[in-house]
Design a protein that fits this description.
Layout lengths: L10 E5 L2 E5 L7 E3 L46 E4 L7 E4 L6 E3 L3 H6 L5 H44 L15
Antiparallel strand pairs: 1-2, 2-3, 3-6, 4-5, 5-6
Protein name: Transcription factor zinc-finger domain-containing protein
Organism: Mangrovimicrobium sediminis
Length: 175
């Protein structure tokens, strides 16, 4: 297979019965087939340690702004998205085969993003608040205003309908 970034030739590396394509003599990128990346993306996963220092040929020309095509699917352009809520690493994924392309050094950066599960949860909370906080605050204020209106109506109805007409509040009534 041909490297989608520098057009070099992939080297096949097998780690824990998973075959990964590396661009060893070129840009240093790596290709993970469907769901393989999940086994290497956490810092505590020992399998990923072997992939942190892939040799890079400094003469390999790679335009990081250029969109690349999937090495497995003909003509499918990889989609760029952030790996985590910290938005420090952009990875390329294929919408057709769900493969993942990492440029040189991205796996090492991914491993350094979070030191603990609590740090990961806190980063997710911050990102959630940043994305949805203003809208949720607007909805909360709107809900409080509706509640205040409902209470005003209920207070008005107290004078129209005395408590002895309410079910359960009288001894021998019709209710």
């Amino acid at each position: 297979m041909e490297c989608p970034a520098c057009k070099g030739t992939f080297s096949h590396v097998e780690i824990d019965d998973i075959q990964i394509e590396l661009c060893r003599n070129g840009c240093g990128g790596m290709w993970f087939d469907t769901f393989e990346f999940r086994k290497f993306d956490e810092p505590h996963e020992a399998a990923g340690q072997a992939l942190l220092e892939v040799p890079v040929n400094v003469t390999a020309a790679v335009d990081s702004e250029q969109r690349i095509n999937c090495p497995k699917c003909d003509g499918v352009t990889l989609m760029r998205n952030y790996f985590s809520v910290k938005r420090q690493v952009e990875i390329d994924t294929c919408a057709s085969c769900a493969g993942v392309w990492l440029d040189a050094g991205e796996l090492k950066t991914i491993h350094g993003l979070f030191r603990s599960d609590e740090e990961r949860r806190e980063a997710a909370r911050e990102a959630f608040d940043e994305m949805f906080g203003p809208e949720l605050e607007r909805l909360r204020l709107e809900r409080e205003e509706r509640l205040a209106q409902a209470r005003r109506v209920a207070n008005m109805l107290k004078f129209i309908c005395p408590s002895y007409y309410l079910p359960g509040d009288q001894d021998g009534g019709a209710f």
